[in-house]
Design a protein that fits this description.
alpha+beta, Alkaline Phosphatase, subunit A, 20 helices, Serine Threonine Protein Phosphatase 5, Tetratricopeptide repeat, globular, 4-stranded antiparallel sheet, 676 residues, 33% helix
């Protein structure tokens, strides 16, 4: 097997030859070498090389299409946007050129690149004095430089409220956001967004007459866009007038219509009508599919201290189902980890990785909720998680989303009770619910706002020995945090007991599938700082319900396996190519040979752990991952160790090292850069 170093040298040399041939105008040779290069490597340079060769062949439109495709795969790459600006200018598409150069400035990430893009932008303006680029247009394009990321939802990337502004109008993903359970507040801004809940409803903006035929009782969510709107609803010809003072503007109104027949909805100005909800549809075999996500719950910690002792209610509920004892996250923090769980693919494919800049799911990546929505489930998300907002694309597949940033106070108590109220309200509907509990974040973030945790944490553990890290991920070992963490876990478990009891009281064992999982563990649980330790990577994955085996499984499982396993238990299959697979306990022929966990974070080294159970393979680069997420493998180090003894066994396992070196290369080859 060819070594990784020799492979890297070969393709970096091939890239240099392509560049040299382009510079010397040996275009045919450049094309031949690019064909060989791109058969293996699909990095940002490949798109730029191909675009330049198309431009040289007078196919400017082809060059632009190539670079646009490259921007989807490499959304933060300076060279792609810089070349796009050049190409658009060549065909006198001045606005597109300027817009591309603004993105090049945004993603320049170095003063040199920013100055280069700014100079190019100024030249386009000088070269096109007659171009009709208005002052307003220029200001609109400039907004890209100050765009916010997805954490500010329900504020958009341009710092404007999304409240009562329909999004993705005319598409299958159209939705609108309104306030939720608040009487006298009609909107939010960047400063107040955390303090109020919002509700997202999938549907359509409408002013013209809308007609529906129903066979049974339904509910239709309706929201006004203007205070002065009058709405008329006819049910089998009988008129119901909702004048401006009948429906508050700052909420969705759920209009129940019990009588089957024809419904007509009209208004004197635009309104938003949510998708019709059948209250008594044909019941699915799995009437309730519930996914409970607990952020930052370490299964290693639960094992060490006893799941039954730490989470007695959770243990009691899931002991009649499936419990994975060796489930490992594929990414070490929430943003990429949750994206992998919901798509079933590694972060190198979905690329939801940049903590400061916005990038959304590709259309080709189908989210878990979409599978259930297509099957007729009413899909609801109740979450305070600022890393899984609709701005990132998490609206895909959901009919209803309740959100308030966790720092605004929406904790597990509210989420569990919102969940129960939803199930009570739509008790005969087929429900898919995904709920997120972020209470454990209080510990690394050093927040003290839960009565139970404060009352049960002794004074000796109220003063932290080590300060919070630059992020919660970077927080180091602290005995006081460990004690507080245990109490927060017990608190969440106690609150979840209410939900467990409700499910068992209202659903038969064959009517539900309930999953509990996490995205990562914690680094502050042990001495030494290791983002690839079991305390960080080992997470709970539990299931109970229809088609779920009763077993404590020892097999190796990854968090990308959660999606196909839930689908399998509900009689569904993934229709996209994913990295996840179904565990043997659920019917797969073979167990996983190993788990794969990677850290791709700007300004950190790229790191990998491949775990076989008894031994682990570790990989780390010498150079940092850049802000555009590109990775330089030059000078990397890799080794094999025994998990129990931590003894290095690389020398006697050289073939296995080469095997895993190659596996890492295959995972990151499309994100490679050849310069430091």
């Amino acid at each position: 097997m060819e070594s990784l170093n020799s492979k890297m040298e070969y393709y970096s040399s091939l890239a240099r030859k392509i560049e040299l041939n382009i510079e010397e105008n040996n275009l045919e040779q450049a094309r031949e070498k690019l064909e060989e290069y791109s058969s293996v490597i699909n990095n940002s340079a490949k798109y730029c090389y191909k675009a330049i060769l198309l431009f040289q062949a007078n196919d400017v439109e082809g060059a632009i299409q190539e670079l646009k495709a490259g921007a989807i795969e490499h959304p933060f790459n300076f060279n792609i946007y810089y070349n796009l600006g050049f190409m658009y200018n060549a065909i006198q598409e001045v606005e597109q050129s300027l817009n591309s150069f603004f993105y090049a400035i945004k993603y320049g990430f170095t003063d040199e690149n920013k100055e280069l893009a700014l100079s190019a932008l100024e030249n386009v303006i000088k070269e096109n004095p007659k171009a009709n680029v208005t002052h307003e247009k220029m200001n609109e394009m400039k907004k890209v430089l100050d765009q916010e990321d997805a954490r500010v939802y329900p504020i958009d990337k341009n710092r404007e409220s999304l409240i009562r502004k329909p999004q993705h109008v005319g598409t299958e993903h159209e939705y609108m956001v309104n306030m939720y359970k608040i009487l006298n507040i009609a909107d939010v801004d960047l400063n107040t967004r955390m303090f109020f809940k919002s509700e997202l409803i999938k549907g359509k903006k409408s002013r013209n007459l809308r007609k529906y035929q129903t066979k049974g009782p339904v509910v239709i969510p309706i929201s006004k866009l203007k205070i002065s709107t009058n709405i008329e609803i006819k049910v089998n010809g009988k008129k119901f007038d909702f004048s401006r003072d009948k429906l508050r503007i700052n909420q969705f109104h759920y209009i129940r219509i019990t009588e089957p027949g024809e419904i007509e909805i009209s208004s004197d100005s635009e309104i938003f009508i949510g998708d019709i909800i059948e209250l008594e549809p044909q019941v699915k075999p799995e009437k309730l599919v519930l996914k409970i996500f607990i952020d930052g719950l370490s299964y290693q910690f639960l094992e060490k201290n006893g799941l039954k002792e730490m989470m007695p209610h959770t243990h009691k509920f899931f002991k009649k189902g499936f419990m994975a004892k060796n489930c490992y996250t594929v990414s070490e923090w929430t943003l990429p980890s949750k994206s992998s769980i919901n798509t079933g693919v590694y972060a190198t494919k979905h690329k939801i990785l940049q903590p400061e800049h916005l990038f959304t799911f590709k259309e080709s990546h189908k989210l878990l909720a979409e599978y259930f929505q297509e099957q007729g489930y009413y899909c609801t998300n109740i979450s305070p998680n600022w890393r899984t907002t609709p701005t990132l694309g998490y609206n895909k597949g959901f009919n209803r989303m309740i959100y308030q940033n966790f720092l605004g106070g929406m904790d597990s108590k509210e989420i569990v009770m919102e969940t129960i109220e939803h199930l009570m309200s739509f008790n005969k509907t087929n429900n898919f619910l995904a709920i997120s509990l972020l209470d454990l974040h209080n510990v690394p973030d050093e927040i003290e706002n839960h009565l139970f945790s404060q009352v049960n944490t002794d004074i000796k553990n109220r003063l932290y020995k080590n300060k919070i890290g630059t992020t919660s991920v970077q927080t180091k070992f602290d005995e006081s945090k460990v004690a507080k963490y245990a109490e927060e876990i017990r608190r969440v478990d106690g609150i979840l007991s209410v939900l467990y009891n409700y499910i068992l009281k209202n659903y038969g064992e064959d009517e539900f599938v309930v999953t509990l999982h996490s995205d990562h563990g914690q680094t502050f649980l042990e001495e030494g700082f290791n983002l690839l330790s079991d305390n960080r990577l080992k997470v709970p994955f539990m299931m109970r319900g229809k088609n779920v085996p009763t077993i404590e499984s020892e097999e190796l499982i990854q968090t990308v396996d959660i999606l196909p396993t839930i689908l399998k238990s509900c009689g569904l299959e993934s229709i996209q190519e994913i990295d996840g697979r179904i565990p043997k306990a659920f019917g797969e022929n073979e167990e996983r040979e190993f788990t794969f966990s990677q850290i791709i974070h700007p300004n950190q080294t790229y790191k990998v752990r491949i775990n076989e159970g008894d031994i682990s393979y570790y990989f780390e680069t010498k150079h940092l991952v850049l802000a555009d997420l590109s990775i330089n493998l030059e000078g990397y180090q890799s080794r094999l160790v025994e998990n129990q003894t931590e003894i290095d066994i690389t020398q006697q396992n050289s073939d296995k090292k080469k095997k895993y070196d190659e596996y890492v290369f295959q995972q990151v080859k499309d994100m490679l850069r050849w310069s430091k």
